[in-house]
């Protein structure tokens, strides 16, 4: 079975008698019965019911339906329901500020906003009336004056599934927003399903999903990665799909133990937060044969911890690098042997090679866009048929990042002799005297107490290192030893995890962190391609 029409995806899985069992760490926000166990036929029914709600609220072909709620996989169920009635779902993270949500909703001009009373109240507290921006607002969890509640729409029958052309807008997802207001990225059926999800729906030896797998996903379900994942994972029909919505290891642990994963996908931040669980003798990762990471690099000590925790003979860590606009551009595989060979903690900034037959990468001079020779750092340009259709409300910004058939990733990197790509920094975050990302890897490898290290660059000063630890403290003797052979750095700032501003995917908001610590936001990079 291959993914195609997201509006009837769950129906087709039920018709093909895909036997996948779904387990949740908490009930869906759209499920009145509050179940934590589902079959695919039951989920198909839930999607049809949700399509009836959206239709009753006035959503129809061509309309935009904005979805803002707590993190859960029912983001994708609601998106499939919107697709079913012919609308274009726009999945927005509730992690965003009220002001940012207001900006994105104004760009979208949605016919319908599906949200919660908490999101609306937080928006009002922060000075933004989110409900006023949409034509109609549907509140999932209560009664709010001027909006529809579930009692107003429940029980309505959905119309027949709407079919759209493969090149028409299918879904809108926002970028992570590490440098400011996120961009709204429009994908079509051809780009996100035909080029990305279908590519993942191949049973490749060793790394392909198997029917006996227990697939665990601990992700940020408002983002495009999980919409694509939903299509490919369901069509592959693993025995179990287990969904984790939290980054709290104490809350995730019971779910992981009840259904120990054989394949694990998670946010980089979730891997860090769950890492203490790998140290237990009966750790829940003992059956893992494959780990999948996207969104951001995972530092070498964390990769080692999970591969070491597995009792599988040869577990594999598959690291994908890409962007919301393009999907995966490169893949790299880590094994116990490869991370053991990586010297002094370096190793996960090598992104691997472009996806065969799917993507091409070019390293160019930032000013002239002329190709650079092997080993020389420059802007990374990508060419892929999976590139999105554009940005909502920011056409000029989109055009500025297109160079003929090439897409400007905004990343600085270099091509190695073997054809692999070495990632050095985001262009906007770069420093002239070092690679911030490589330095972070080295510091994490040398500071066992560090959960995360962040190196912030600003003009006219040495880079500022931030060390994230459990107690917000760093041992000075250990620090001096860790930086003994590195370019000059300022004295470190030690913070706890919750003191660091983050996106909904757990990425550090570097400019906001720099402003909190120094009162300044200036960078070496131009920021032209953020």
Describe this structure in words.
Keywords: Ligase. One of its GO terms (molecular function) is ligase activity. It comes from Streptomyces caelestis. The chain has about 525 residues and is of the alpha/beta class. It has 3 domains: about 45-190, Rossmann fold (3-Layer(aba) Sandwich), CATH 3.40.50; about 245-425, ANL, N-terminal domain (Rossmann fold), CATH 3.40.50; about 435-520, GMP Synthetase, Chain A, domain 3, CATH 3.30.300. About 30% of the residues lie in helices and about 25% in strands. The protein contains 16 helices and 24 strands. The protein has helices at about 10-15, 40-55, 75-85, 100-110, 115-125, 150-155, 190-200, 225-235, 250-260, 270-275, 300-310, 335-340, 395-400, 435-445, 475-480, 510-520; strands spanning about 20-25, 35-40, 65-70, 90-95, 110-115, 135-140, 170-175, 185-190, 215-220, 240-245, 265, 290-295, 315-325, 325-335, 350-355, 360-365, 380-385, 390, 400-405, 405-415, 420-425, 450-455, 465-470, 495. Strands 1, 2, 9, 10, 11, 12, 13, 14, 15, 16, 17, 19, 20 and 21 form a 14-stranded mixed beta sheet that branches. Helix 15 (about 475-480) links the parallel strand 23 (about 465-470) and strand 24 (about 495). Helix 2 crosses helix 3, helix 4 crosses helix 5 (about 115-125) and helix 7 (about 190-200) crosses helix 8. The chain is globular, with a radius of gyration of 23 Å. The model has no long low-confidence stretch (mean pLDDT about 95).
């Amino acid at each position: 079975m291959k993914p195609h029409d997201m509006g009837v995806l769950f129906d087709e899985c039920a018709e093909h008698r895909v036997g996948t069992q779904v387990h949740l760490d908490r009930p869906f926000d759209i499920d009145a019965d509050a179940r934590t166990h589902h079959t695919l036929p039951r989920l198909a029914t839930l999607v049809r019911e949700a399509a009836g709600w959206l239709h009753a609220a006035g959503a129809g072909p061509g309309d935009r339906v904005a979805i803002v709620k707590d993190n859960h996989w029912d983001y994708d169920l609601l998106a499939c329901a919107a697709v079913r009635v012919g609308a274009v779902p726009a999945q927005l993270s509730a992690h965003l500020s009220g002001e940012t949500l207001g900006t994105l909703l104004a760009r979208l001009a949605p016919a319908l906003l599906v949200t919660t009373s908490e999101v609306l109240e937080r928006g009002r507290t922060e000075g933004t009336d989110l409900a006023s921006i949409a034509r109609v607002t549907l509140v999932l969890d209560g009664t709010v004056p001027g909006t529809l509640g579930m009692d107003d729409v429940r029980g309505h029958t959905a119309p027949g599934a709407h079919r759209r052309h493969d090149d028409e807008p299918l879904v809108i997802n926002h970028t992570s927003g590490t440098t400011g207001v996120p961009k709204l990225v429009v994908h079509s059926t051809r780009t996100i399903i035909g080029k990305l999800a279908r590519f993942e729906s191949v049973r490749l030896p060793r790394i392909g999903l198997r029917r006996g797998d227990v697939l665990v996903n601990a992700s940020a379900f408002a983002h495009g990665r999980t919409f694509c994942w939903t299509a490919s994972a369901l069509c592959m029909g693993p025995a179990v799909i287990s969904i984790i919505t939290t980054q709290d290891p104490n809350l995730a642990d019971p779910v992981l133990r009840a259904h120990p994963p054989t394949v694990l996908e998670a946010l980089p931040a979730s891997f860090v937060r769950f890492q203490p669980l790998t140290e237990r003798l009966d750790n829940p990762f003992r059956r893992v044969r494959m780990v999948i990471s996207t969104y951001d690099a995972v530092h070498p000590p964390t990769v080692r911890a999970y591969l070491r925790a597995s009792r599988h003979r040869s577990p594999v860590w598959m690291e994908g690098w890409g962007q919301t606009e393009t999907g995966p551009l490169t893949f790299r595989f880590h094994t116990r042997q490869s991370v053991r060979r990586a010297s002094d903690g370096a190793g996960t900034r090598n992104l691997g090679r472009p996806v065969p037959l799917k993507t091409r990468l070019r390293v160019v001079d930032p000013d002239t866009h002329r190709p650079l020779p092997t080993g020389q750092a420059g802007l990374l340009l990508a060419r892929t048929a999976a590139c999105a259709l554009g940005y909502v409300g920011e056409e000029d910004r989109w055009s500025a990042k297109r160079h003929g058939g090439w897409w400007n990733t905004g990343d600085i990197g270099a091509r190695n002799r073997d054809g692999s790509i070495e990632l050095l920094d985001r262009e906007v975050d770069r420093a002239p005297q070092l690679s911030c990302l490589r330095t972070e890897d080295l510091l994490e490898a040398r500071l066992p107490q560090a959960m995360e290290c962040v190196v912030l660059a600003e003009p006219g000063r040495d880079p500022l290192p931030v060390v994230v630890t459990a107690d917000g403290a760093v041992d000075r003797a250990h620090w001096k030893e860790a930086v003994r052979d590195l370019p000059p750095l300022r004295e470190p700032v030690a913070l706890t995890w919750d003191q660091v501003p983050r996106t909904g995917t757990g990425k550090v908001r570097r400019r906001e962190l720099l402003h909190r610590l120094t009162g300044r936001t200036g960078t070496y990079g131009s920021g032209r391609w953020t």
